[in-house]
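Subgroup meeting minutes
Present: P.N., E.W., G.H.
Scribe: E.W.

1. P.N. recapped why we're keeping a running log of single-chain structure predictions: easier to compare across weeks, and new members can see raw inputs and outputs side by side.
2. G.H. added today's entry (266 aa).
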Amino acid sequence: MKILRTLAFLLLSFSGMAQNSRSLMVTAALPKFLRNGDNIQIPVTIKTNLAVDVSGQTTLQLTDAVKKTSVDGWFNNVFPVQYFTASSMAPGKLHFLLTVPDSFKTVALIHIISSSGLMSDSLQKTLPVIYNDHNKAISKELLDVKKTLFKRSGRFNIPLTGATDIFSGDTLLVKLTITSDKLYKDVSVTDPLAATMKVLRTSYKFTDTDISFSVPELKKGAYSFVYTVIAEHAGRFSFAPVIIKSGSFTASFDPGFILRVEQKEK
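Output recorded in log:
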């Protein structure tokens, strides 16, 4: 009988250890891409099913997915290790700050490891960096392109200026206005999205990285294209040049707009 009791106790102990080894889970809200020069806050959440407080550390590592070399220094990942305290009632929340270097033109691999004692969890995700050459944003065509952003607040649209507070989760209205001094036929417009923006409502074609418009005839005058997005991450995000094609020419226009987003406190 003592032997059976001992075996039962050992089985329960091993079962508890196995359960505890899976009781730590790390998640991160990562964008689908970034652009050169972007600054971003990567929110990381550590959860546990234990009722008591669990303390530990979380590490974020960056490598070049092609060369397999560390790029932590390139991305200014100066605080790669942060400490957390979490319980089943209050998950641990951290933010890692990263800056995308202007010279980075490939895919970064993000590896996040969270550990506390014998418990640990990790995740890996590739993060494409889209290279934007703003120096080529020049056109000799008789076109003028202007981008305006508005923050939705109830029934009102508030124009964004340098003094406007934008938070993650805010809904934005984007207005792209093209003014032409002559007739262009079979025009296609590609408006690259900033890294933080996710398209919510539009009748135009879009992907994770850009939204496009087709105009059979762009006559002399001003034309506006409007769509709605949501700012998903906190940071500082740049807009790539707008690309316009018609017949034998391709023109690019730099809107010179940078979106600044603060982290919304929950």
